[in-house]
Write a structure and sequence with these properties.
Elements (H helix, E strand, L loop, with lengths): L5 E2 L3 E5 L5 E5 L4 E2 L1 H14 L5 E5 L5 E2 L1 H8 L1 H6 L2 E5 L3 H14 L4 E5 L2 H9 L5
Parallel strand pairs: 3-5, 4-6, 5-7, 7-8
Antiparallel strand pairs: 1-2, 2-3
Helix pairs in contact: 1-2
């Protein structure tokens, strides 16, 4: 079965057979609040609650504070309550984990440097 890929100016999205939403941020994307709002709207349309997100952000160039605040908001946490975030290096993983500790989000999140462990972690949230 061919997956349907939805493109925005900054990311590609598709739905795995198990219901996990995958997003891949495009190379050198400079994300601003408008992009975050557009991307969350896409995820809201393609997934069904509870939405589990696998976000590959390895190629992102920058994100604004407004974007980070929006993704961390309770509003977005209700839409996407579980997030596995794929980063490109162990250093980025350490920085991401520090950010999550300081932010104390109202959603479940974990930072990964490899795809399979991230997907396995997300699948542990799937109830049959």
């Amino acid at each position: 079965m061919k997956k349907e890929i939805i493109e925005t100016s900054t990311a590609s999205f598709w739905l795995h057979n198990d219901g996990i939403i995958q997003s891949v941020i495009k190379k050198d994307a400079k994300l601003i609040l408008k992009d975050a709002i557009e991307n969350v709207e896409i995820m809201e349309k393609i997934g069904s609650p509870p939405r589990l997100l696998f976000a590959d952000i390895r190629l992102v160039k920058s994100v604004t504070k407004e974007l980070r605040d929006y993704f961390a908001s309770k509003e977005v946490a209700q839409i996407i309550p579980v997030r596995a975030i794929l980063v490109g290096s162990p250093v980025a993983k350490i920085m991401g984990n520090m950010f999550l500790r300081v932010m104390n989000p109202s959603f479940e999140a974990k930072i990964f440097t490899e795809e399979e462990p991230a997907l396995a972690w997300l699948r542990s949230y799937i109830t049959n």
